[in-house]
Amino acid sequence: MIAKLLIANRGEIACRIIRTARAMGIATVAVYSDADAKALHVRQADEAVHIGPSPAAESYLVGEKIIAAAKETGAQAIHPGYGFLSENAAFAQAVIDAGLIWVGPKPSSIEAMGLKDAAKKLMRAAGVPVTPGYEGEDQSVERLKSEADAIGYPVLIKAVAGGGGKGMRKVDAAGDFEAALESCRREAKASFGNDEVLLEKWITSPRHIEVQVFGDSHGNVVHLFERDCSLQRRHQKVIEEAPAPGMDEATREEICAAAVRAAKAVDYEGAGTIEFIADASEGLRADRIFFMEMNTRLQVEHPVTEEITGVDLVEWQLRVASGEPIPLQQDELSINGWAIEARLYAEDAAKGFLPSTGPLTHLDLVGDRVETGVEEGGEVSPFYDPMIAKLIVHREDREAAIQSLALDCSEVICWPVRTNAEFLWRALEHEIFRSGEMTTGFLEAESDALLPTGEPSAAALQALTDHFLAAADETSPPELVGLRLNAPKAEPLMKFSIGSATFDHRHQWHSPHAGRHVEEVEEGVLVNDLGTTFVATIARNETAGVHAHDGDILAPMPGKVIAVHVAEGDPVTAGQRLLVLEAMKMEHALTAPFDGLVAELSASEGAQVQVEALLARVEAPAED
Q1: Which residue(s) pair with 197 in the sheet?
Q2: I want to staple 428 with a disulfide (CB 3.0 to 4.6 A). Which of 217, 234, 406, 466 is the partner?
Q3: Catalytic residue set
Q4: Is the pTM of this model over 0.85?
């Protein structure tokens, strides 16, 4: 067994690998860039080695530095995690050539699945169903156009070396083909250094189904069932679940068997994923599920497979890399319950998913299983993937899992970095997702219903009002604030500053605001609004008096009178400061509504007053 492991990655996956390695008694070595000097994975590892500047191209993507760090620390093996160098066959070979153990598939397997056109030919020969299309060597515009016409529109142009949604174009009509091809090739060349493309038939009701496979050096290959990753935004997965909704046993058996054939065709070792596109226009059927590609590494969404099978896939990786056989045979694996994962990203969904970086002054994540590489007090760096965490739940059935995960997303607190938590909550609560009939276009098609407004809801404002009133009135319980003898209970109008905006809210007694967590923080009062976090203060307002009648100056909230600037009988002008009320550690100036005389002054310096208490009355001068 491996005694010391270097993890050639960062963030949540590095922390995830460290956890399993520690449980197995394996010492760990972290690598880090300048930006990650204080990162969580660096502190959790037994040792850490600095490998360069913040940009990944100068640190995490420099294989020579990583191998040198392994040798320097005496690590026997390197685990690449996912992303960065995890599917780089040349790096894998360099690790092996350096006399180290590569925790992953053989370089030849990575190469075989690295180019989509060659992989599809290989899969077709292995009896794996492949999407109708063209993967030929003739890359002339004329031949590609002819093949597209024969396949039938809409057709998809894909870069053979593509990934992450880059180098892909959907073409709806023959007249659009050449322009789309030119654009696709230009992007592919810039992103991957290779402008060759393949063509695929566009699936009109696509579901993304993938199968987890695992092989060892003893010739064993098993599958650990399927996952559904159809909830995607711009070809990036957002919510994943296992098993796939609507998957019957016969279809599952056929598609999982095809995945095992695919892995055996490349003599696969370690963890891998066979990705399929399903035409779900008539439900999930084996004859309408086609191979897309193979990811020759651990997947971001691997926890949902772990939850339904009870298997630690990282432990399996380390054991297989050490030369052991797969711990379980196919007939020993089964599905137990339902698991769903949501990816929490540092992005402002209300503003077009703009990246949000900076300090995590406030961060609170709840759930059965939270995989993260950051913590409160840390920060989100602009140099790397913006994922803050993965929230995973496991329940007896899909409905219970959805309800639990939606609740977890709605309780995310993150400030001042913005997240997509409310967007996730809205997606999980949507009737199409709950029905299990979503396609890969669901998030785009339903964006109007899924995008947060970026403003606090009435329930959040109500929660803030309750908090401010209760905190300001230290002598009366909230239910008595605003109660006046022989008069209806007052409903004070509160004005909040949230960012650069101001929001008015008239307090409603006994109005529900379930799920809105409120707490005082250094910056003001924090409220969680279904996953979106706001920090509010009482707006400073030179006309903050509540005017029951034209000249009545009423207290806008419970507080203490800290200054009185006028006396009865004094002449005043519109806007002149009459007195100052202190509430919630802020000063609120109350001013004259018009020119006139102070006819009555009920307030005195140092007095505690209730909401809408009469503090002063201004009368207009008598007309001649």
Answers
A1: 159
A2: 406
A3: 297
A4: no
